[in-house]
Hints:
heterodimer, A: 543 residues, alpha/beta, Rossmann fold, 3 domains, 23 helices, 18 strands, B: 167 residues, Pyruvate-ferredoxin Oxidoreductase, domain 3, five-stranded mixed sheet
Amino acid sequence: MPRQLLNGDEAVALAALHAGVSLGTGYPGTPSTEILETLDHLGGRAQWSPNEKVALEVGLGVAFAGGRALVTMKHVGLNVAADPLFTATYTDVDGGLVIVSADDPGMASSQNEQDNRHYARAAVAPMLEPCDSQEAYDFTLVAFELSERWKIPVILRLTTRVCHSKTLVEAHAKVAAPTAPVFNRNVPSRVMIPAYAKPAHGRLRVKMVEIAAWNETSGLNRLIPGVGEAGQRLGIVSSGIAAVHAQEAAPEASHLVIGMTWPLPLDTIRQFAAGVDRLLVIEEGDPMLLDSLRAAGITAEGKAEMYRFGELNVPRLRRILAGDTSPEAVPPKGKPPELCQGCSHRDVFEVLRDMDCIVSGDIGCYTLGVLPPFSAMDTCVCMGASIGVGLGMRHTLPPEQARRVVSVIGDSTFVHSGITGLAEMVYNPPETGHVVVILDNGTTAMTGQQENPSTGRSLNHDPTGKIDFEALGRAMGIKNVHSLNRFTDGHLLGDLLKELLAKPETSLVVVRQPCVLAAPKIRFYEKAAMEKMSHACAAMPAE
Amino acid sequence: MNKVTNIVLGGLGGQGVLTASDILADAAFRAGFDVKKSELHGMSQRGGSVSSDVRYGARVLSPMVTAGEADFLLVLEPTQVDVNRPVLKPDGVLIAIEIIPEGAVKNKKSLNVAMLGALSALLDIPEAAWLDAIHARLAAKLHRLNDESFAIGRAAAIQRFNPPGQT
């Protein structure tokens, strides 16, 4: 096949298509979002789930049924999916199950820079880490093979620079075709009651020992010999994007690039270490590789603590190689992002600011409400936290302050993790009551305008079921449920909030206006759906 | 010798910086080079600063341009020149939006392609590769407009920089 210029996300999608995945599932999150969108564009089957936990569970079901499943998420999404992950590894999957964790060292668009390599060790799952789009393609195929050979979920860990860098890819699709899905009853390997989970854990540990042995000759770990004496003096062990930075910064050193970072090919690394005077471990984020080598009795040096933070790059690699720990130059700050002109969130944050509310915020475009000229957000932790954190403050603050607390959450975030927060509000209502505002802009805006279960359209924008927030709120037993169309009655928001904040009752307010960036597309999708429906009606036989 | 050409494109979200860097990377690929391109997505549609790195040569390792080592810096927005200037090497070339004659480009949305036209006059990528890359990236109805913008930028840079090999 001819070479093409693809980013890492596109390469994973292409490989998944070539592997014949039955279904791709996930939740949008930068930098992972384009994987499923591309899979859909390429003609594969992909769907957004309400959150990553559900996405992984659906993927696991696909794999139990013998289909190949690709499950995608950003790093923090794996926290949400951690519950199924930690037991899915105990089970036997029939079809390949590949979980993509797209980490964000440097936090280009995230609330933390957690290093998800820890999940491979903690959940006992093999982990592959490509350094460019070619490896993203190749490793995705290998991940499916591994997953089926050992009947185990495999994590493909990408990072922002791998996801969003375009490099050349030659596709080959050498993977065996998937077998036809069929239900094979296998209770002891899939029903994780203690009686079955105990032996399953034992089997899992045996799988990992076998996979570690396989990894020694897997071909996934590349040895790049150094030049002359310099290649003897310094050996660098690295993985992921850090590997290409390291090769550029130290072209004469010997390099061992680890493609499968869990379980580690320790014998290969030990042999590499024996051939060099000094062994340096270059890894983005936590000293995970370094600690593992040291635990295995391999003498190795790591980077100084200051390089744990943020992304690595060639100049930082040069500093690490020179042992330079002097303060780094701070690059000039660009113009920060802001809420778009005409964005419905702007009015809401103006009202919240002017009313001096204590705003428990959430994850989305509207987190920009924390910045001037609004400065109207007081907390933001993780998806859905606005409601629980708001309730906790309500329970604890003196009443005159508690009555100022408002939880603000977007439509997609609400479906993702906010519904259980509402259950908590109904179940354990604070004495002063509480007010939750859903900012419904009709799309998952922040990640690039993806659909979600409240838009009424699926990933490919075809019409599907739609969650009705107001009906849900009423069914859950919330006392006051209101909705405002920002175009027609946005000016009423201040008075409504004033009224609700004064009541010791539970309240839900849905403020609606389509995202200004998404609105033209939404109109287009709606029109297409109407046309489809009228064609269907016209095709129906007359009575 | 493995000479890698380092280019950084900068501007604000919505100006077509990422589209321009896509076209540049594709043009370099079509010209037979190894190429890597890197940028951060996510916040780009909210009017913030956007920049994209493109590197091409016989073989490219890191996808990111090292600060102080860019051969060319292309900036679509006057306010973003100072923010991006540190990426340029001392004798690197800044191509600022002022190079495009005022009012020459009818549709502002094709200013990014006009800027690529200016850059093209200074790079070892054949004009045909540029035009193929532009046509591959943009809808057919936009081809003529962007071909014109490309030509305007290219002519402006030839006049301004008088690069060797151009007549």
